[in-house]
Fold each of these.
Amino acid sequence: MLNTGLLRKLPGPHIAVRADVENSGSIDISDTLIFEQSLTNHPNGNIRGNGFLDVSAANFVNNGTLAPGNSPGILSVIGNYPLSDAADVAIELGGKTPGSEHDQLRISGAAHLTGSRLQLSLLNGFCSRQRRYAGNFANSRPERRSAHSAASIQHIMMCSICRMRCDW
């Protein structure tokens, strides 16, 4: 199946896609969308939304953009999350509360972020007068991953981006 437009999963019963999907358009998730064969998000493809992207039984290749939330929100990937060097993760940051003030990407499996790009947009004048930041994910060391919870990593990221005193 080739998507070059908009594939939208509305709230309601879980939907399982039992086909190989090539995405060069947008996939908008509101609830749970399950891919059972393969999902390839091409460089001009965009996956976004609030809910669950279940790729645990699929071959998932991401060369495009993954954007949690709908200004802002939380997107959970069930399964492994491989990113190529061409892939982007788009995050909106407007405060310290996940889902309502900043985007959050949750991954249940292995996350391969090395080389992919982070596109960070600030909301409501949060932190700075500068409105866009960008960078690459660095190599992650497995022995260090367990040393920080997701909340402390978000806290460290926001404090270093905003260069502000973070005592919350």
Amino acid sequence: MLDKISPSQRAGVDGHSAAAKVKDYLVDKDASHVIPYSKGGSSHSHNIKWESKATNRARGNQLMTRQEQMRLGTKVHFDNFTGALQTGLGAVPKGAVIGIVTTVPFSTLRNTLRGARGEISPHIASESNSRNIQRECNWHGSLCYNCLCSHHSCSRFSACCYSTNSNLSCFVSCRWRGNGLRVVQDC
């Protein structure tokens, strides 16, 4: 039955947050039978949809109409979209932290060396550090947001996102090396 919950509503950064999201999503839901069990319907997943408790219990043992099934299908897509946005927004601070961690050491060292050699003033070095950190925080934050939103809103692209994530870690590693080389070249 978990496959009936939209991917973004099952997503989390770890097992605990994923379980908490599923629990929050299901707090007011019932597993509703399209064809009621009392009228020969099975408990197989193709005959069950997640629906609000009030609506399911008000219907009783009546057949679920085609309109109700379409409404629930639309609701699942909407829930998936809103869940993906929430997951993406939750990733922005983590991306910003990645930007800070990958930028601060190299930017500070590079600008300190340039200041010590008299190429730039301490004030300009500080401004340069701030611009670099802000740019990298924005870049990593938006990257994390876009990756997670696209991954959780459209499960068909999950294989693409997994390969993107491995390429991303390789790219971040190369950026680290590139920043380190820039500092070494400045010496």
Amino acid sequence: RAAGDAAALEALRAVKRVMRAMPDHGLGYGVLRYLDDEHGPALGALEAQNRPALLFNYLGRFQTGDGEWTPLAVGGRFADAFAVDIDPALPLQYGLEANVFVDESGAAPRVAVNWTWADALFGADAIERLGQRMDGAIAALAHLAERDPLAAADTLVAAETLGAGGAP
């Protein structure tokens, strides 16, 4: 358990270091890539040369509801705002996509993932196993945070940017 906790904490800290090193937390990339006539073409060329095989898209934290612009849950699955409907005639941009958000509508927050993949690269059974491993890793991190809240808090990027009382 201790070795696993140490490895998990180090992995989270590595992600934290990468996130901390990104200028403006990565927010300027889209502006430069798609709206800046000077830098857009160079960034487009770099993107074409270094096309990732995986898209991990974190959408944020949400609650279900029945009002406008709120996600609708049907049968325990989100049925509208977070459904990813891809025309089968279009080529996939990535071999594997994970669109992820946190569902806060229940007693405890839970991670929801919508997987899209290229059938030529992955089978449904492989994606199911990947989802199970991801669920297990998330559960292990949650248990670690419950056992050692201070160590878990040290992995948060916000812990470095917020002062006492949550103020920047």
